[in-house]
Amino acid sequence: MSRVRLLSDTLASQVAAGEVIERPASVVKELVENSIDAQAQAIEVMIRRGGISLIRVTDDGIGMDRDDALLCLERHATSKIRTAADLATVGTLGFRGEALPSIASVARFRLTTREKEAVAGTEVIVSGGRIETVRDGGEAPGTQVEVRSLFYNLPARRKFLRSENTETRNIEHQLNLQAIAHPGIGFSLVRDERVVFQLPAAKTLRDRIRDLMGNELLARLLEVEPAEGELRVRGFVGQAGVSRASRAQQFVFVNGRAVENPVIGAALKEGYHTALMKGQFPVTFLFVELPPAEVDVNVHPAKREVRFRDPVGVREAVVTAIRKTLESDRSSWQEQFRAPSVPEIPLVRRAEPVPPSNHVAQPNFPVEIGGLATTGDRFSPNEERRPVGEHHFRILGILNKLYVLMENAEGLVLVDQHAAHERILFEELRRRMEEKGVPSQRLLLPQVIELAPRDAEWIERNLPTLQKMGLGVEEFGRHTFKLESLPPFLSGTEPARLLQDVIDSLKSASNSSSPLRLGEEMIAKTVCRHAVKANDLLRQPEVEKLILDLLDCELPYCCPHGRPTMIQISLGELEKKFGRKM
What we know:
Layout: H1 9-20, H2 24-37, E1 42-48, E2 54-59, H3 66-71, H4 99-105, E3 108-114, E4 121-127, E5 130-137, E6 142-148, H5 155-158, H6 164-181, E7 186-191, E8 194-199, H7 205-213, H8 215-218, E9 221-224, E10 232-238, E11 243-244, E12 250-254, E13 257-258, H9 262-272, E14 281-282, E15 284-289, E16 295-296, E17 307-308, H10 311-336, E18 347-349, E19 367-369, E20 372-374, E21 390-392, E22 394-399, E23 403-408, E24 411-416, H11 417-436, E25 441-450, H12 453-461, H13 463-468, E26 472-475, E27 480-486, H14 495-508, H15 520-530, H16 540-551, E28 566-570, H17 571-577
Parallel strand pairs: 1-7, 12-15
Antiparallel strand pairs: 1-2, 2-6, 3-4, 3-6, 4-5, 7-8, 9-10, 10-15, 11-14, 12-13, 16-17, 18-21, 19-20, 20-22, 22-23, 23-24, 24-28, 25-27, 26-27
């Protein structure tokens, strides 16, 4: 007796629906994407009981005639592709023709649609994948889809749904993604007859972010200026130090589609590098745009993942865009200290270099009042010093033997002297090592290490880079290498583990990254030990030189560990705190 049997059409549809429709949020995603593809300018989503009882999506798009309304409920019926070649140039959000029949097979489904010029529309009612009613409808132009009793005929799937609040949050997240990706479209969400949000069509992405996230977050975002070419990266990213403990506010879009992609995720981490604290994730609203033929969107059933034809090129573009954006923020920080301030603030010129030392000399003249070191005339500017660069600010004092208080054109600035000195020493040591290479220290007993074939091939191709990093590696047979020397800051590390870490780290780094990337964590730890500490009292020239050297750094606003070095409190904020301004 044959054990292989052909599934019924109904059961096959329900099984296939499980790949596309996971929860109510999946229904909302598919229906909203269809509305966007239909050129809708306003989309309303109404839900009850977290979408389990009812999901209704209404749009003002182009609508459909009766034939298309019936045909769209057939599996793999679509208006968006015609041939296999069209898959390489998909420019719409939907294209496989699976969403509507999948939804209709696991719910009580109602579709009403009408073209703008048509006198009457069409209403189709489906229950569990079977069409029950087809008749004329009198709805407004556009399309309305109602999905009731989701998974009513699949109790095993229904019991895996979360609470109503959790499902509602997932739906809201999906709508937020679509709203960010398409700011020119109005979106509204109604939950149990209560309006959750109503977003009018926005002129720019900046306006949409303000409507969704508020002015406070928007003020801490930097706009990414797109470079010329077929591959463009645009959007907004958080300033250095603006991060979250999860990827909850890391929004990435490829050709208008919200995606999860490890290539872009690694590029974001690479672009921020020391501007991000360990374990934190940047806040991004990032759009990657490239020709459709360069990206495969037909990888995941729910189209969450994409694959790039040239992943290295995409990674380089994202890394470059992030770095340039952070560098532009550096210029704005420096401008705050170049702008003329109030007339009584004297001009501070660069002081003569102070000989570096591990121990900062203790001055014998500061007086502390309640933890604030008043400086008297010891911070008065010395105009006789040879000016190297000019900045407008006034040093007010030292708070708690750690924070330098300054006044500039914007208001009050607090500088963490330890974090600031860490950044200065880190960039100085890294620059010195890049110019001269990393010194190496020979091992007493060379280590012979055998690697996997792919890793061995990678080592062979990158031997010059490894040697510049101070790793004395040479071939010692098939897939085998001899490690003879290490950089001093990596001494004591188990060689085999070290070499594997080197391979993994440099594989994930972009081509434009420093070959010393592996050693930067150790450099950061080293400078942390040598930087000035809390309770180290600094002389006037030392404080001035600290601030001026910090402003000359590549990333002056964070230490090598990603912590902020300085905080600006604007005059407007101070006026609000004191009730002078509403």
